[in-house]
Amino acid sequence: MDPDGSVQDPEDKEYSSVCVGREDDIKKSERMTAVVHDREVVIFYHRGEYHAMDIRCYHSGGPLHLGEIEDFDGRPCIVCPWHKFKITLATGEGLYQSKNPKDPSAKPKWCSKGIKQRIHRVTVDNGNIYVTLSKEPFKCDSDFYATGDFKVIRSSF
Ligand code: FES
After folding, report:
1. Is the confidence metric ipTM above 0.90 for this complex?
2. Domains, in order of start, for the chain
3. Would 62 disulfide with which of 42, 80, 133, 144, CB 3.0-4.6 Å?
């Protein structure tokens, strides 16, 4: 609480970038985890690009750093090891397959549920990897497991 009695809205917080490791290391391991401003994230290195997102799956808090990366509809996704939800690395969208009930023989189509997993920015400077937390002012489903009462760092995995 501020001296004037106001409470700062966490959404307004300015986040500085935080160094989470060395480029050489993540290029070997292809993923790493880090705590950035009290928020646990996973960073993937996939096909020459870096992606960071909340570590706990938006569905029920599964450990995304233990999932496999696969392409769906040409989009690289992390597959949550708990219930196999697919989340795009680039945008945090949840993907699902839709079937046309009027045409059961038609091939199922991949559709997006919208952004479900909060994506954070990754930058590289002088061989160091930095993560800057997203300040996007929308309510993202993965916030539920990244903040508040349901936030559990590491000990739950
Ligand atoms: Fe990730 Fe259910 S917790 S799919």
Report:
1. yes
2. 19-135 (2.102.10.10)
3. 80
